[in-house]
Amino acid sequence: KFDFIVMNPPFSDKDWTDGIKPSEDKYKRFDGYGIPPEKNGDYAWFLHVLKALDSNGKAGIILPHGVLFRGNSEETIRKAVLEKRYIKGIVGLPANLFYGTGIPASLLIVNKSKKDDKILFINADAEYKEGKNQNLLRPEDIEKINYVYQNKVVLDKYSKLVSLKDIEKENF
Questions:
Q1: In angstroms, rounded to a whole number, what is the distance separating the alpha carbons of residues 160 and 163?
Q2: What is the mean pLDDT of the chain?
């Protein structure tokens, strides 16, 4: 078990089941959540992190933006995770930030010990330096994200505290 994990797994990993049978997973990573789609391992990696964290563990996981809204088994998993109140913040990042992919990503901030009824959403997708081959977060962009998150600052069109009830109304 780990106190803290930072992870940037392969986006939409199509071979995440390589070597394991999810229904017979000896680590029980999917128990209580469901099994991610066979050809998309975003939530497989997320659930791996949850299982590896100790009861007071914290994590930052970078995943494609789609984990926030895709349906079917991913919706079931997302709902179960949200109901456990593990997610404390979600930072929407700019497109073309990571080498090898132009899709926008999200940073999901997890804290297993603190059970809040609200999640801080930060829309940081418009504040960055445009690069020739990929975009960059400048020090001032990172500082703003950190300040807003640490202080739970609500800024128009940038950050908002959203209750679990409101998220539930939007089908999680």
A1: 10
A2: 94
3-class state of residue 56 by DSSP: strand
Q: DSSP for 64-89?
A: EGGGGT--THHHHHHHHHHHTT-EEE
Locus of tokens 């998309």 = 40
Burial label for 43, CB within 10 Å (0-12, 13-18, 19+), is buried
Task: Give percent of the chain above pLDDT 90.
Answer: 85
Question: Which structure tokens are listed for 46?
Answer: 């997320």
Q: pLDDT band at residue 132, thresholds of 50, 70 and 90?
A: confident
* Backbone dihedral region for residue 87 (phi beyond 0: left; psi -120 to 50: alpha; all else: beta): beta
Distance of CA 63 to the CA centre of its chain: 6
Secondary structure letter of residue 37 according to DSSP: P
Pairing label, strands 53-64, 105-111: antiparallel
Query: pLDDT value at position 116?
Result: 86
The model carries a pTM of: 0.93
pLDDT digits (tens, 9 = 90+) for 10-24: 999 999 998 889 999
